[in-house]
Amino acid sequence: MKKVYAKEDVCIGCRLCEIACIVEHSISKDIIRAFKQEEKRPARNVVEECGPVSFSVNCRHCDEPPCVQVCISGAIVKDPASGIVKHIPEKCVGCWSCVMACPYGVIKRDTNQGKVIKCDLCPDREVPACVSACPNEALLYEEK
């Protein structure tokens, strides 16, 4: 299965990946409307910075995801065919168990909706928005 991988040696910490994620998951898919007119939602990835080193972190779509194991409502499932760990918002009860269980800290609380959000690898795109937006090619979308 293809996943998003970060190359921290070339990441410049510009956060364009976060912006691309927010716009891709907005209603309008327009950068101005997404930030000025729509309800604010967090990015499904986050740029971690430690001194001069920075890199984007998103869902690792684990082989044995702890978030799936702790989800009390069955809102987080692993697709056996694709290997993608999916979130089903209609089932989410906002207990935040998955947030606490994720070893990478990439499942975010959407307090406006009372649910969680996580990387879905942009299913309507060939390449996730964060990868396409990276000006330095610090994000790769490939199978390893």
Descriptive account of the structure:
By secondary structure, this protein is α+β, with helices and mostly antiparallel strands. The protein folds into 2 domains: 1-58 and 121-144, 2-Layer Sandwich (Alpha-Beta Plaits), CATH 3.30.70.20; 62-118, Alpha-Beta Plaits. 21% of the residues lie in helices and 21% in strands. It has helices at 16-24, 31-36, 66-70, 97-101, 129-133; strands at 3-6, 46-50, 53-57, 76-78, 85-87, 108-110, 115-117, 139-142. It has a two-stranded antiparallel ribbon. It has a two-stranded antiparallel sheet with strand order 2-3. The longest helix has 9 residues, at 16-24. It is globular, with a radius of gyration of 15 Å.
Keywords:
Alpha-Beta Plaits; 144 residues; 8 strands; two-stranded antiparallel ribbon; alpha+beta; 2 domains
Which sequence of strands runs across the widest sheet? 1-8
Structural class: alpha+beta
What letter string, H or E per element, gives the SSE order? EHHEEHEEHEEHE
Oligomer: single chain
Q: Major sheet, described briefly? A: 2 strands, antiparallel
Which residue ranges are poorly predicted, with pLDDT under 50 across at least 5 consecutive positions?
none
Q: Tell me the domain tally.
A: 2
**CATH topology group of the largest domain:** Alpha-Beta Plaits
End-to-end C-alpha gap:
8 Å
Strand content: 15-25%
Shape: globular
